[in-house]
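Bug: token stream looks shifted between consecutive jobs. Job 1:
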Amino acid sequence: MVGVASPTAAFPSLETALKHHFGYDQFRPGQRSVIEAVLKNQDALVIMPTGGGKSLCYQLPALLKIGVMVVISPLIALMQDQVDSLTDNGVAATCLNSSLDFATIRQREADLLAGKIKLLYVSPERLMSPGFFGLLGQLIQTVGVSGFAIDEAHCVSEWGHDFRPEYRQMSVLREKFPQIGVMGLTATATERVRVDIAQQLRLRDPLVQVSSFNRPNLFYEVRPKNRDGYQELRQQVKQHQGSGIIYCLSRKRVDELAQRLREDGESVLPYHAGLADEVRRENQTRFIRDDVRLMVATVAFGMGINKPDVRFVIHYDIPRNIEGYYQESGRAGRDGEPAHCTLYLAYGDVATADYLISQKPDEAEQRIARQQLRQMVDYAETTVCRRRVQLSYFGETLSEHLDGLCHQCDNCTNPPPVEDWTVEAQKFLSCVARCQERFGMAHIIDVLRGSKKQKILDLRHDQLSTHGIGKDRSVEEWRLLGRSLLHQRLVDETTDGYPVLKLNAASWQVLRKQISVEVAVPKDFTPGPAEASTLEDTPEVGQLLTVLKALRKKLADQQSVPPYVVFPESALRQMAQTRPQTMEAFGQVSGVGSRKLVQYGEVFTDAIRQFCADYGLESDPGAARGRLRPARERRQTVGDTHRQTLELHRQGLSVEEVAARRGLKATTVASHLEQLIRQGETVDVDQLVSADRQRAIVDVLAEMEHGSLTEMRDRLGPTFSYEDIRLVRAAWQMEQQP
């Protein structure tokens, strides 16, 4: 029996089903069209970036179709995370893998055949094991199979960044069960990889959904790794809030870095293939459950990580290719909240990576890997928008910003000077044409600079009209131009390991003087800004968010699941901003479905009501509509509790004395005074903070006005309180207003 769709049997629309099962009000871009295709039993190839919502594309159809959706996933840990999340949402899901004992496997198989399960996760090895196709046959004849979903489908392609030979066998599904729809899903795939995936899986007229690879919530930067690189890394880790991953090239570097960070007081664990399986599993579980803040890892810490609230990813060594870097850095901010991605560049690390490539037994693999490494170095050295370079690699253009800047990378926020190099670009592209589009950048530069190398003479390229016309520019300047032309897609390059430059339509527009070429010229390096704190709408938002995170951690530990399984951080932030105190208002929070409303509604609204009572706050009026308004649009009124604080302050009492008189915490009183300042009430800051301390705080504010409180306090030192900084900042910012 093949599963058929009946989405309207219980729900009037797909959006209604989405809200009921998963708590979301609307689909993300691309999801709806895929879900509609799967419901019609059509094959599909889904390319969505990390955090883009791939899983929902098969999870919702599984709930709306008859039978079991079989999901092939490469890692046991990833399967278990998915099952935990679904189970917590009230969805019947299970997995079969080698970690289970015989009795457990038999019980789960019985549940499947009894129609108690809607999603089954298996590994490729389990799929191909003796007897599994017999189980599938039984399922088809009894409860039905609604479809096959092959996750991390780039593993099918030898052109993908994580090719796995066992994935080549997935085509057997089409051979044995031709009547059942198949979908492949992955976060990254170039055009070449997409074609290969469709062929290897034998997809029939599939819907191909390629969502934008742009992750606008991620800030990208590259920093030079100097001799004191560790100290800069250490300082950066201190400045960042939340969980982070630090990637290294070797196991030895992972162990050394994790040890140094641990000795410096950081909560950190290592992860690499040299550790015992049980140690890796334990370390990953502790990181996912927020028992430790940092994970230092090799790329072995990859597809198994399903933690949406990673706030920063640092590559302490250069990655081997752009596709891998996109995947690894993309493990930051999967919840859609702001996150930071830093790459440290040291040319000694490039040499190490090249040495590792030389150990590959196949010369063709070496050739392709070296080209990919050079592309990675070009990315690190580029002076153009880093997001533009990443998107160009996947055949996408940065289109939503008319100025061509993403405003979310170091090159855009701290742009180098731009110069018109149209004439030089015409020389470069003309030389590519004269050389009949058969050579790479190094050869083109040699011709332009009038080289007399034997290769130039043998090819008679010393007789070309472009030979020597670029002597006035250095090799590095021509390389800068060549990289810029590639990144701006004004010239193309082959990707088969022999990087040959090819003219495209835009190249001819440059040659015909129809478009000009601007090149960003490097200047002395200045690190990009740390991301602005996302918790600073008001002090209460940050304080309530801390309370809600602690509650989430407690509930997660009770159930032995990661905290994000209870609620994603984005949902907690919405709760902190809107402060829903009734079940109806709580149900409007994005991410709160029917199951989570019943399971967690009372305990979270109780916590929010208690917090509001402690601080004299009311629920935000935006909560009733389930819509957040920016803090700048929410004008807070001064209530009675704030007036009482103001009266006592005007009697000359200190923050601590007001707190004692009113039975409140000092942080609450300081919060009242800060809001009063911002509302234009007269608050005597001189009475609260000494002149010397005010001057010190204002100096830091002038230097890092948009920094977080934590960053400011780190700069000022532990003798300065957060309350002092808040009060002085509020007064200073009010003074700056016109």
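Job 2, same session, no restart:
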Amino acid sequence: MHIWDFFCIFVAKMYKAMRRYILAVLSVLLLAGCQRTQPIIILYENDVHCAVEGYAKLAGQRDLERQQTPYVSIVSCGDFAQGNTVGSLTEGEAVVRIMNAVGYDYLTVGNHEFDYTVPQMVHLSEMLTGKTLCCNFSRYQQSADSDQQSATCDEEDLFPGYAVKKYGSTKVGFVGVATPSTFRSSTPTYFIDEQGNLLYDFHANDTYERVQQAVDAARDEGAEIVIVLSHLGDDPEVAYSRGLIAATHGIDIVLDGHAHHLLNERLVNDRGDSVTLASTATKFAYIGRLTIDKDNRLTNELLPTCDCQAVNQAVRDTIQAVQRELAAKVSAPVGTTAFALADRDNQDNRLVRKQETNLGDLMADVSRYATGATIGVCNGGGLRAGLYNETISFGDIVSVWPFNNTMRVVECTGQQLLDALEVGVALLPLENGDFLHVSGLRYTADPRIPSSVIWNENRMFDGVGGTRRIVKAEVFVPAEGEQDKLPYEQQGTWQAVNPEATYTIGGQSYIIACSGASGTFAKMRLLPIDGEPLNDVEAVCTYIRAMGGQVNEAYRQPQKRIIIK
């Protein structure tokens, strides 16, 4: 071999060796150059409930943050689609339109996103430009050879449980989780078929395990920080945020919704590590600001929205456009009232879920008048606002009953009626969304007597054991010729509820036909109707017009239909 050949071989080997060295040096330099030096800012909210004005300030705060760092995201912990007319008149679509103008990155679903049916919730999620995350909501797929629900039928997650986003050199994982109580706090019949088989599942018994699996998967993909977007709240009888932290590891912060609390505290996970639990209360009282510095240290702040001065004009324009489109219908006058029909006391304490109010009397009378049933009912959890303006607008009524229900009637025994009343008072003196306001009925409850209501695994009514808190219940029997009069005008007598007798009960479809109020009406016989059922808001409008356009003086004070000892 010629000496030139040896020289060429030597140069080639040196080149390969130097090439590896040069590439290694360049890699180190490039990695150093990619190291994130600016903070990551995560702005968040929960339970906005259609308080849409806050979105312009949220976007304005994002604009301010982007002047300091390119790494800014906006996330939501749910319950944005329902709360007032902007949501109910458009089944959440107008709210999503505003949220898209803001530009969300990730969100999870709250229980009230399901108020307009599961298909509509999925439609809203598809409309959103941000990505919906939820690790514990599944749909069952029936087997081809069986039309019955079974433990072996296929299960499909409707949304990804997590996502990983890269900010410079840092990967951040986001995990979404919804409250299993959605099954009963939204509309139970949305999640089951006519035979009572589950169509959808919130995995009440393994929610924490599902979150852990999503957290582990995000970590496996390189997430250095994991943020949980939670709509769990604080009810320890189902999966809740504090329980989630105590049962898991690998989570850095839980941003929580559902309970409407203001939270910014440190808790300990199952390995003794510190985890932040944060929540912004409700209706944009605060904007959450999470900072992840260059060393991945977290700082969480709660900014009073009223102090946030920056406003994104494009988002405000979208809000105003939506409001103009709805203004004519929302502001249309229906009638007047000379006094407040209250859902709260003067200290802003909510009353309608634990005691009689004049608002509850009115709405229960609407239920009886609209359906022609012996008894009218409305549940305290369905009364979402009071009527405080002298002129009552269509929008005011929608704010009271914002769920687009219809009016339906069931037939039941007196014993079933007594059971329904028992469920309503089971939690007294605490609030209970199942608490029943009544018309054509009066009852007395003694909370000192232990409640023996039996609940199933989904916190749905399963029977009454021994002791009963309802110590007296009477049904009103109108005198001859009085049936067609308005409820407060009727004359008649009161008779004790007979457990063996048959009664009819009218009310909103949520409790009468859709297993709401913990399913206490689910085993009663739903009566058929001719044509389309009457919308609940229209029923209220009809009743006010029947009173001559002004709420009658009979409703100035509660009418002592409910006595709590």
